[in-house]
Amino acid sequence: DTGVSQNPRHKITKRGQNVTFRCDPISEHNRLYWYRQTLGQGPEFLTYFQNEAQLEKSRLLSDRFSAERPKGSFSTLEIQRTEQGDSAMYLCASSPFTAANTGELFFGEGSRLTVL
Amino acid sequence: GDSVTQMEGPVTLSEEAFLTINCTYTATGYPSLFWYVQYPGEGLQLLLKATKADDKGSNKGFEATYRKETTSFHLEKGSVQVSDSAVYFCALSDAYNFNKFYFGSGTKLNVKP
């Protein structure tokens, strides 16, 4: 049973460059989430997919951020024209569909972005 | 809006000591409440959960009770071990939008032998 996989685990880039992170969720999970975590803080919601549809985006997700899940399997999070304030851990999580309000999130180990 | 507040760390305890990590929340409706744990070098993983008032979640010797009257979900363990050293996050899922989770800032626990 493979868990949620994220890569790269660490990316160092210069300000103004574009970066892309990939997330492979647990195979039978149709829901996929991106969160951002800065040092000393808990994860903050960025966006959510059900299958290939992006159903919700946080106001934290500026126009420089775009997320896709083209075939309802893996997802990518791209950050264009990176800024130093984008430095954070980007977490991906997945969950199976549940009708009840009890959903558990399964997290990957995260992709750490450092913008110089 | 919904939010979670948990006690700041780090918390340092000796092995076999009693642990309490406080967590309070603000939410409309009836959210589900969770404790997630992050061991060094690993991703967050669910520790326990409670979905309605007065429910008690438990796992690995940890317990937390959903108290609606005090809007709290404090984490407790009677006797901690060195292996419990980790960062603990309290979280809630929005009652009206259960796809959205709100996390506290995390509490780091250090257990000394």
One letter per element, helices H and strands E, the order of chain B comes to: EEEEEEEEEEEE
Q: What share of the residues of chain B lie within helices?
A: under 10%
CA-based shape of chain B: globular
N-to-C span of chain B: 41 Å
List low-confidence stretches of chain B. none
**Segments of chain A where pLDDT lies below 50 for 5+ residues?**
none
Biggest interface, which chains?
Answer: A-B, 27 and 27 residues
Coarse structural class of chain A:
mainly beta
Helix count from the secondary structure assignment of chain A: 0
Q: What structural class is derived from the secondary structure elements of chain B?
A: mainly beta
Instruction: Please give the oligomerization state of what you see.
Output: heterodimer
Describe this structure in words.
The complex is a heterodimer of chains A (116) and B (113). Helix content of chain A is 0%, strand content 48%. Chain A is mainly beta and 116 residues long. In chain A, the strands form 2 sheets. In chain A, strands 2, 4, 5, 6, 9, 10 and 11 form a 7-stranded mixed β-sheet that branches. In chain A, strands 1-3-8-7 form a 4-stranded antiparallel β-sheet, with no helix packed on it. Chain A is globular and about 40 Å long. The N and C termini of chain A lie far apart (37 Å). By secondary structure, chain B is mainly β. Chain B is 0% helix and 50% strand. In chain B, the strands form 3 sheets. In chain B, strands 2, 5, 6, 10, 11 and 12 form a 6-stranded mixed β-sheet that branches. In chain B, a hairpin with a 7-residue loop joins strand 10 and strand 11. The interface between A and B is medium-sized, with 27 and 27 residues.
